[in-house]
Amino acid sequence: MEYVVGGLQAVLALALAPLVAGFVRWLKARLQNRRGAPPWQPYFELRKLFAKEVIVSGQASWLFRCAPYVVFASTLAAAFLVPFILVPGPMDGVGDLLALVYLLVLATFFLALAGLDPGTAFGGMGSSREMTVAAIAEPTIALAIFSLALGAGSTNLGRIVTQALGNPAAAISPGHLLAFAALLIVALAETGRLPVDNPATHLELTMIHEAMVLEYSGRYLALIEWAASLKLTIFLTLLANLFAPWGLATEVAPGALAVAVVSLALKLGLLGLVIAGLETRVAKLRLFRVPELLGVSFVLALLAVTSSFLLR
Amino acid sequence: MTVSFLIAMAASYGVGALSALAGARGRFGRGLVAFAAAAGAAAGLALGLTALVSRAPLALSLPGLLPVGGGLALRVDPLGAFFLVVIGFGAIPAAIYGASYSAAYEDRPASLRLLGLMFHLFLLTMSLVPLADNVLTFLVMWEGMSLTSYFLVMTDAGEERARNAGLWYAGMTHVGLLLLASALLLLSGGTGAGAFADLRERAAGLGPGIRDVVFILAFLGFGSKAGIVPLHVWLPRAHPAAPSHVSALMSGVMIKMGIYGILRVALDLMGGGPAWWGGLVLGVGVVSALLGVLYALMEHDLKRLLAFHSVENVGIILIGTGAGLMFHHYGLASLAALGLIGGLYHVLNHASFKGLLFLGAGSVLHAAGTRDMERMGGLIKRMPWTGAFFLVGAMAISALPPLNGFVSEWLVFQALLGGVAVPVPEVAIVMPVAVAALALTSGLAAACFVKAFGIAFLALPRSPEAERAHESPFSMRLAMGLLALACVALGVAPFAVVPLLSAAVAALAGLPDTRAELAAGLSLQAPAAFGRMSPALMALGLALLVGAIPLALRVLRLASRPRPGDAWGCGRVGQTARMEYTATAFAEPLSRVFAEIYRPMRQLSVDFHPGSRYFVQSIEYRSGVTPWFEQFLYRPFLQSATFVAERVRRLQAGSLHLYLLYMAAVLALLLILARWL
Questions:
Q1: What is the pLDDT, as a whole number, of residue B191?
Q2: At what angle do helices B302-329 and B404-417 cross, to 10 degrees?
Q3: Quick one: CA dihedral A267, A199, A143, A84, positive or negative?
Q4: What is the mean pLDDT of residues B305-326?
Q5: What is the pLDDT of residues A250-306, one digit of tens each?
Q6: What are phi and psi of B533, to 5 degrees?
Q7: Hey, are the CB atoms on B380 and A61 less than 8 Å from each other?
Q8: Under 8 Å CB-to-CB from A161, ≥6 apart: which residues?
Q9: Which among A77, A136, A143 is the nearest to B593, CB-wise?
């Protein structure tokens, strides 16, 4: 039963991921005094893309056609490790937080290669920038993991969450708050949000993610967009459930699961509001200012580790 | 049983060396030489594996072969057996690959003969390094390994670059030998009895000052072979200069003998030391890992790029090893074992993926005739097998699951995370920095291999040579395929490998056997219940998902055939290779971010039309990275050495009488000194 629920929560996350992305988009539009498309707009877009014909550049190799599947599969595999509504997840023994991060790197790696494959200038530019941002975000992620692991004595997500559930006071310790701030900045960078990347434009000189996937169309693009929204959902859920795990179901019981779903929705909504608010308030940074931002997040993470070590 | 493996190994290498010396040429000759090498390596591998599994050390003494210093003494203990396994594991594919690859030297019989002879002697001496059981045997084999590999670097002695590389290599390796010899002689105390068993006994009674000096000398000596920063300068020169299957061996296997030496001296002979030994190893590991990958990013010569990645990977190995040494001092035995096992796992992994990548680079060189990535491109279509294998290697070295690099990095990460158990806060607080550095290293490595694979194999060919590239012959593909398979197997089945590594580590300085603790069923488990992960299940899940998605799309009738079209060129029709991103452009953002380290130099010269400055006739742009290690560290040293040599040269006047006078003067001086002291 646990395995069924554990597997279902990842599938559920996959199904809801477009809604999360659409919701942030809708909130942003509202905050900017626009009406905006409804939150469920991404579902229509996905359906349209899946039905469309695929056009592939004649220069591209097999890698270009495989990459969307690998990207989608590894992001989904990462989702299987995330405690969306149930802890300790049955997949806890399969992979820990480090494995999750590296699965996401696997997706980035293939996407960047696919960007280079058709041999256009935009694709290469996007790949180069994406890998730059991903590489310098990595130390912060590792340190945030370190500080979480310090508190829980484990890198496994289930243990981190159960530990936090058992000791609610730890959630507002300085170490946790600093790590949250650090991971939030990294989440913005990793999921291609403002101020690092702008998900709304296709302006060649500023974009990162969109430049990389410019050559994709049809179902390939649908898979990539879907995986991107799933990645956003994963990061938001990690921010929500690792730092404020309340409401998560600890056993497979209909009541507890219902509470967990509602609390997850509330937390995601709140985080969506934070991101939409941020995205209306800040302008996109120049590419070469991004390392400074990530440097800030690195220092935050380092402080997080130090304080959670000293206050242990 | 084990002795017969040893004899088989030596005999195979001997036969190979002799047949190469006799001038074995042609398909059959090259095949014979390669077969002898592969057979010898297989015997070595079998010897190592039996010793690892049975865990019974095998001692063998042949005093007659070396009449001084205790003779030729060999002993196969678990640590040495593991490194023997690594050598065999790396040498078999290299030998197979060499069968076809050395065909390029057919028209130069002298080079081919030298290559075959030195290849076998190199393998033989290198295999005996981890088996040596006294100081003399060790030093002789070590020097044999260095000298034979020097000749291998010089295979293309006609090229200026190869000669330059050989000079740097010979210089660095002999400085290293000097340091090693002094360390080991200091340890043996000049008693002449250099058996390792005696050394162990003596080391226990030595004062801390002497022990520190021995450790520093040994670390620098072995480090120069392993390629730690700043002693790495020979590596990016020598590895590209050698023939590719030799580069694979030198980079994948030989530099690991440095790791072996550090473990042997620090943990086995001296039984561990103060915490700062581990700290030093860890710190040097961090610096090597970061600088190695940063310099690799700026490199556009495929083989030099790979050589810099060896510096990076040795850094990762040393991070694990250093953490292990440190934990050993604090009595955290199972964490120490975890760090060392992580390091040794990375040794094995690096031998597989770096071997694979160097062989892949060799195939590219063979097909396109260039090592310059800016002249490659589109090779994946012309060399599909090499492309696929190279991709596996690139993924493995970038530590992507479910391949092998990920497993060893995970183990090292877990060891570092365990560092908070260290009772000293100053030390425990250093661990996060190492964690961050390791994470940055692996992120940059992924970026670098997106560049390497993407620029070399994807997109359009950037030169006519790349356009005409062709797939390599069967034996070269076979060798790469074997290593690619090893990358997958080592990544998916660590539960089978970790017990062997645990055996290699368990014998060292009272460390426990942690195999039951570490490998539980299909998963890996870090001690003290830290982390848990199962690469096998992850791989299975990934494979299922990658297979299921296209299948689902087909069932849903959403999998229409893609229609070929043009790439988007801003409305411009017709795509050329000049529109592609280059390797330089790809690395540009990172070169700006890390400008402090690279100190990039740019030169832009623009020629204007004499009539008007608005008409540009030509633009020339040069960019590069300042090699400041060489400028600020090596150049002053070399300049002063030259200065001294110039002065000393005056002593040599060519007059016999003068020389006799020198002798008499020195004799008198020595007599006075002896009297005085």
A1: 67
A2: 30
A3: positive
A4: 94
A5: 888 888 888 989 999 999 999 999 999 998 888 888 888 888 999 999 999 988 888
A6: -160, 150
A7: yes
A8: A83, A87, A88, A241, A242, A245, A248
A9: A136
Please state, in angstroms and rounded to a whole number, the distance separating the CA atoms of residues B586 and B581.
7
Size of interface A-B (CB pairs under 8 A): 257
Q: How confident is the model at residue B420 (pLDDT cuts 50, 70, 90)?
A: confident
- Residues of chain B contacting A291 with CB distance shorter than 8 Å: 593
Among the partner-chain residues B431, B528, B565, the one whose CB lies closest to the CB of A58 is B565
Tell how strand B563-565 and strand A55-57 pair up: parallel
DSSP state of A168: G
Pairing of strands B523-525, B616-625: unpaired
Chain B CB contacts of A309 below 8 Å: 420, 425, 428-429
A250 in B contact zone (CB under 8 Å): no
Asked if A307 has any chain B CB less than 8 Å from its own CB, the reply is no
Distance from CA of A108 to the nearest CA of B (A): 9
Q: How far apart are CA B289 and CA B399, in angstroms?
A: 14
| Residue B116 half-sphere exposure toward CB, CA atoms < 13 A | 35
- The nearest CA of chain A is from the CA of B446 a distance in Å of 7
Residue B70 has pLDDT above 80, yes or no: no
pTM: 0.93
- CB neighbour burial string for B396-419, b if at least 16 within 10 angstroms, e if fewer: bbbbbbbbbbbbbbbbbbbbbbbb
Q: What are phi and psi of B76, to 5 degrees?
A: -100, 100
Phi, psi (degrees; rounded to nearest 5) at B488:
-70, -45
Name the token pair of B129. 């390094």
CA-angle at B122, arms to B117 and B128, nearest 5°: 130
Question: Do A99 and B589 count as a contact with CB atoms less than 8 A apart?
Answer: no
**What are the residues whose beta carbons fall under 8 Å from the beta carbon of B142, sequence distance 6 or more?**
B129, B177, B180, B257
What are the two backbone dihedrals, phi and then psi, of residue B69, each rounded to the nearest 5 degrees? Answer: 60, 30
Helix and strand totals (H; E) in chain A: 11, 1
| Residue B432 to residue A305, Cβ atoms within 8 A | yes
As a whole number of Å, the CA-based R_g of chain A is 19
> Which of A76, A138, A309 comes nearest B420 by C-beta?
A309
Distances (CA, A) of B119 to A87, A227, B98, B113: 57, 49, 10, 10
Tokens of B366: 């063979």
Across the interface, which of A62, A96, A131 has its CB nearest the CB of B450? A131
CA A30 to chain B, closest CA, distance in angstroms equals 33
Record the tokens describing residue A164, joined without a space.
């936090």
A208-228, pLDDT tens digit by residue?
888 888 889 889 999 999 999
* A124–B410 CB contact, under 8 Å: no
Q: Is A7 on the interface with B (CB under 8 A)?
A: no
Whether the CB-CB separation of B626 and B600 falls below 8 Å is answered with yes
Q: What is the pLDDT of residue B69?
A: 65
Q: Look at B440 and A135 and tell me if their CB atoms are within 8 Å.
A: yes
CA gap B313, B299 in Å, rounded: 16
Residues of B in contact with A92 (CB under 8 A): 532
B292 contacts B312 by C-beta, under 8 angstroms: yes
Spatial CA neighbour of A119 closest among B587, B377, B297: B377
Q: Do A95 and B440 touch (CB under 8 A)?
A: no
Classified as helix, coil or strand, B530 is: coil
Run of H or E including B61: strand B58-62
Res. B277: pLDDT tops 90: yes
Give the minimum alpha-carbon distance from B148 to chain A in angstroms, rounded to a whole number. Answer: 39
DSSP code of B423? S
